[in-house]
């Protein structure tokens, strides 16, 4: 910015191939990025953000406010976002995103050796995407119960307001996507580590793929066209284990005839 009077930043704050539509609020990481850009005398930014508000709405709102004024009070902006959008359910929704932020941090700071070990179980996925799947499972798998707990609380608080109830219902869709992603990936790991000779271990994957596919079809026709396009493109592009009709999915039908127990 000191060498020219028209310098702009171009960056990606959320990549579907890395995050798969899961909730990923950046929080202070977004603050640090934009304030660094401002200190560098850069005039503005073109930043890619998540395909839905549910995936990273708090980051999008915070980033927009920071681009207007990098010195803005972060706590005030975050309170404003949750209060305006979720009203009586604001406290619970904020707690939900706090859990999601912890999941993202655990994923992005996970031990390299643990990621490498887990990535070997995704050997049928394109090499450049294996680490991403591993990190998602490490980061979000342990957080599913806490995410569910806060979302149930938000649903209860939103019950009297039909508009807020619909907004929280979209968070429920996003958590369904998150759970299906983690359950499906874990099923692949279990199958691979058992020696690939017990297809009944892929039963949860079959349910996860069906759940995820139905969800993407439904939201893709209503409020999340970009999400469906991004995830279906990512599935195909990286040969994802979650892809309908993919390698592992073709093994699942044999499970249906074995009367294997299914997860609810």
Describe the structure.
- By secondary structure, the protein is mostly helical.
- The protein contains 12 helices and 2 strands; from the N terminus they run E-H-H-E-H-H-H-H-H-H-H-H-H-H.
- It has helices at 16-19, 28-39, 53-68, 74-86, 90-108, 112-119, 127-140, 144-157, 162-193, 203-220, 225-238, 247-256; strands at residues 8-12, 44-48.
- A two-stranded parallel sheet has the order 1-2.
- Helix 2 packs parallel to helix 3 (53-68), helix 4 packs across helix 5 and helix 5 packs antiparallel against helix 8 (144-157).
- The longest helix is centred in the C-terminal third of the chain and has 32 residues, at 162-193.
- The radius of gyration is 20 Å and the shape is globular.
- Mean pLDDT is 92; it is low at 255-264.
Brief summary of the model shown:
This protein has 264 residues and is mostly helical.
What are its keywords?
two-stranded parallel sheet; disordered C terminus; 264 residues; mainly alpha; 12 helices
Helix amount, in percent?
55-70%
Q: Name the structural class.
A: mainly alpha
Q: Give a short account of the largest sheet.
A: 2 strands, parallel
Q: Please tell me what the overall shape is.
A: globular
Spatial order of the strands forming the largest sheet = 1-2
Return the string of H and E elements: EHHEHHHHHHHHHH
Q: Kindly state the mean pLDDT as a whole number?
A: 92
Show unreliable segments: 255-264
Q: Report the β-strand fraction as a percent range.
A: under 5%
Q: Distance between termini?
A: 55 Å
Number of helices: 12
The Cα radius of gyration reads 20 Å
How many strand segments? 2
